[in-house]
Design brief:
The complex is a heterodimer of chains A (220) and B (199).
Chain A (H helix, E strand, L loop, with lengths): L1 H16 L12 E12 L9 E11 L4 E14 L3 E14 L18 E19 L6 E18 L4 E12 L3 E7 L4 E7 L5 E16 L5
Antiparallel strand pairs in A: 1-2, 1-10, 2-3, 3-4, 4-5, 5-6, 6-7, 7-10, 8-9
Chain B lengths: L1 H16 L16 E13 L4 E13 L4 E16 L8 E16 L3 E17 L7 E18 L4 E14 L7 E2 L2 E13 L5
Antiparallel strand pairs in B: 1-2, 1-9, 2-3, 3-4, 4-5, 5-6, 6-7, 7-8, 7-9
Classes of the chains: A mainly beta (220), B mainly beta (199).
């Protein structure tokens, strides 16, 4: 807990030293588009390696404190050398900026200086998972499910309109779980579907590049 | 006499480069609204599968702000110009990398250095057996990082040199997934145009 507090204080201090005037670009109605690269770690399948993915998102700001993120991700990973998995995520998240009311985010200066803007993120998505046998890709199991995700992140606002964001969030899958059994002696792969919620999940780390493209309302 | 000639020859460059040019009066060829494009051959090393190849590399870039640009680019594997080491299931028969992302530029007026981060996909065709009987296509998540320098020599032309690194995994082959990790060099003549004039 102390560590988290120290981390937030450090981020806030960074803001104090790198303040600028970007009030208008960080208010209600701002539309941002971004492209992102994803690392999926601590996957639920036994022997599953970290996955890599790409995706994109659009962010629509509702207020100074609240942003929304509408995203799509495509992630692939290996399950040792006997299967591989493909995940598609489409969903939305809410970003809450707990420090947005600090004075440092409202100070006007003539020259822009980069700044960190930390946030808490939580949301929901629909996902499709496909697990295929490497030896025979016609031998597969698939699952449609829903998921919830939550985590922490920060924007690094390099210019008033452009930022690089790093987010770490854990995603819980709410639907059925596909369990894999692989016999290393016979090299036979079997899929089993297990019913029940919150049986599987993974940690998603996103690095995204974002650009504020339009102010949909509140221009004056 | 010889010493005089040497003396003159040594001083000529000094006069040549000593032409007082006020840097502020030189035309600025880089700035927001610049649209640039080029195509070149990029020698590339697939370092995890110990193979080298040539890529046809083309890009289109738009400068959004003084330091930020939006860029899309394509790498097309040229299979006949390659030194491929392993058997068919370990190397692609076809490879296309499609990337889009942003760049950050620093440097002087017409000489810019940049770093680009471009997620994308690699579309590969790889053999499913060692007898080249069946091949399968796949689209794999990829990430491209590139560092480069560019000299904007005139209103329409620039010289650029870039180092490209990208990585992706082909997972739908029967053996262990194959890494397409690669390092390459792109360099050549680029074309650009300021699409908006300053008032």
């Amino acid at each position: 807990m102390i560590r988290i507090g120290t981390f937030i204080c450090l981020l806030a201090l960074t803001g104090v030293f790198y303040a600028q005037n970007n009030d208008k670009l960080n208010s209600s109605g701002m539309l941002t588009i971004g492209i992102r690269s994803t690392l999926s770690a601590f996957n639920d399948q036994q022997n599953e390696m970290p996955g890599k993915g790409i995706g994109g998102h659009a962010r629509l700001r509702l207020s100074k404190q609240i942003n929304t993120d509408w995203f799509f991700d495509y992630i692939t990973s290996d399950i040792l050398n006997y299967a591989h998995r493909t995940d598609y995520h489409i969903g939305w998240s809410v970003l809450y900026y707990p420090l947005s009311e600090l004075k440092c985010y409202r100070i006007q200066q003539t020259k822009y200086k980069p700044l960190f803007r930390p946030y808490v993120v939580a949301g929901h998505c629909f996902d499709y998972s496909l697990i295929q046998d490497k030896a025979d890709i016609n031998h597969f199991a698939e699952r449609w499910s829903s998921a919830v995700q939550a985590g922490l992140g920060t924007h690094f606002e390099i210019t008033p309109r452009f930022d690089v964001s790093l987010t770490a969030q854990y995603m819980f899958h709410l639907g059925n779980h596909i369990h894999i059994d692989y016999d290393f002696d016979t090299q036979v792969l079997e899929f089993h579907e297990e019913k029940g919620a919150l049986q599987s999940g993974h940690l998603l780390i996103n690095l995204s590049l974002n650009y504020k493209i339009a102010k949909l309302w509140g221009r004056k | 006499m010889g010493k005089k000639i040497i003396f003159v020859l040594l001083w000529i460059p000094c006069f040549a480069f000593g032409q007082a040019i006020n840097t502020d009066e030189r035309p600025l060829n880089f700035g927001p609204s610049l649209l640039k494009a080029s195509a070149t051959i990029a020698p590339t090393r697939f370092y995890k599968i110990y193979s080298s190849a040539a890529m046809l590399n083309g890009y289109l870039e738009y400068v959004l702000e003084d330091r930020i640009s939006l860029r899309g680019e394509v790498f097309q594997f040229m299979p006949n110009i390659a030194n491929l080491k392993f058997q068919a299931v370990n190397i692609p028969r076809n490879y296309t990398g499609i990337h889009a992302g942003f760049g950050y530029h620093i440097g002087k007026r017409n000489w810019k250095h940049s770093i680009h981060l471009e997620p994308g996909v690699s579309i590969t065709e790889i053999a499913q057996d060692n007898y080249n009987i069946s091949y399968k296509w796949s689209a794999n998540p990829a990430l491209l990082v590139k560092v480069g320098t560019c000299l904007y020599v005139s209103r329409f032309f620039d010289f650029f040199a870039e180092i490209n690194w990208s990585d992706s995994y082909v997972r739908n082959n029967p053996a262990t997934s194959v890494s397409m990790a690669q390092v390459g060099i792109s360099a050549g003549l680029g074309f650009h145009l300021l699409t908006k004039t300053k008032k």
